[in-house]
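Supplementary Methods, section 5.1.

A reviewer requested that the exact input to the structure prediction be made available. We therefore reproduce it here, unchanged from the version used in the analyses.
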Amino acid sequence: MEANVRWTLVTAIAPVAWGTNYFVTHEYLPDGDPLYGAAIRALPAGLLLLAVRRRLPRGSWWWRSAVLGLLNTGVFFALVYIAAQTLPTSLASTVMATSPMVMMMIAWGLVAERPHVRHLAGAGVGAGGVALMLLTGEASAAPLGVAASVAAMLLSSLGYVLAKRWGGEVDVLASTAWQLTAGGLLLLPFACVFEGAPPHLDGPALLGFGYVSVVATALAFAAWFAGLRHLPAATVGLVGLLNPVTGVLLGTLIAGEVLTARQFCGLALVLAGVALGRPVARKARAVRAVSPLR
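The structure derived from this sequence is encoded token-by-token as follows.
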């Protein structure tokens, strides 16, 4: 049980860091270059982890890294960048909170992890909280931003479960490094073709990309995939609900966004959903020793 709690806390690093990423992207990173933004986020993070781990893919992990790099970093980062630039911080982060139920269904099919009724209840309660925070009418919901967030949620949910299915063969740092590096490298040629020259980065933008790449990417993804390695996908998905909690709180405390009573109730429901997903130790059954008949 203590190990489960420890890995849950490690996993929680990721959604909290991702929640801050929306604010940093929206406030400090250049607008209008989602492909470059995604590449600049992914590639330095991947190279940093690769420098730490110093191990290259072998065999099937070359194409697996490319697939996971596209799903979990390349296309995903570009979509998140668009969402962060077109939606308010609280709104963009809450859309991603619908992923627990999707992850549960995909994990059921791909890794035979049948969701527990408690996990399903947590996903339902969390989705109710998301709906309360999302459908407040206080923030404008740009269709492009909402579509980008939904697509990012679907692709990443599939990518996370695939990473869990394949991840037992290599260590977490290596597979995370390969995914991030592959995602960044695959994005660069598309960024050059469709966005032209790289965007000019001033001091705040460089600091912002430094934070996003090191903390919200290298550290966060290593923690997330470590959690997927040691916990059920359903539990990890529900821990991910801390993402909108962080986004909403940052929007309230730093960006000056107003937290309405309805959003506050939604926030409480989201936290309840996270609590329902916590790992529970199985009770050991007592076994009686029966003396053989003589």
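Residues 22 and 180 are 19 Å apart (CA to CA). These observations are discussed further in the main text.
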